[in-house]
Amino acid sequence: MVRILKMDDVDSSVVEDIRKGCIFVYPTDTIYGIGCNALLDDAVRKVFDAKKRDASCALSVIAPSLEWICKYCEVDMDVVRKYLPGPYTLIVRKKDAGFLKLVSGGKGTLGVRIIEHPMMKYFEMAGVPFVTTSVNVSGDAPVCDVSKISDEIMRFVDVVIDDGAISGKASTLIDLSEGTEKVIGR
Length: 186
Description:
The protein is of the alpha/beta class. Helices cover 24% and strands 25% of the residues. It has helices at residues 13-20, 41-51, 66-72, 77-83, 120-126, 151-154; strands spanning 3-6, 24-27, 32-35, 60-62, 73-74, 88-94, 109-113, 130-134, 159-162, 172-175, 182-185. It is globular and about 45 Å long.
């Protein structure tokens, strides 16, 4: 049974659910996302399955902090601070190519975000990277209202956090992996 919470009803129990590997639909500063604890491969596989997405296609993570990004990724923190928190996904090199291998599609890079939304405090409290991807079957339009989430997706979901209609669009992708700042899309 899917647990549906209004944003105002979210509490610290969500942090434990994140750590345990529950699959979440949650609001961001752009659109609704679907994700899980990125350190738990079984949960990550469920997100790939929900989206009908090939595991060779990388997912991104919401990092629990700027310090986490500095610890696990090769970055210029001045550049990172220019974009995060905010509606950006930064493609960066991982310090350990094997870290979050499933999430990154086996690549040496990782998409990282820190959102500008009240939901971020729960990701910070959890202290783990959290898979973030649009809550739609791959190729379909992103969802900006939880009432529009397909049944195909909902059968994989444990918790939905409803913050009403979001009028945003997907985050802007900026590739920092080659030492330059290159906008590569949404």
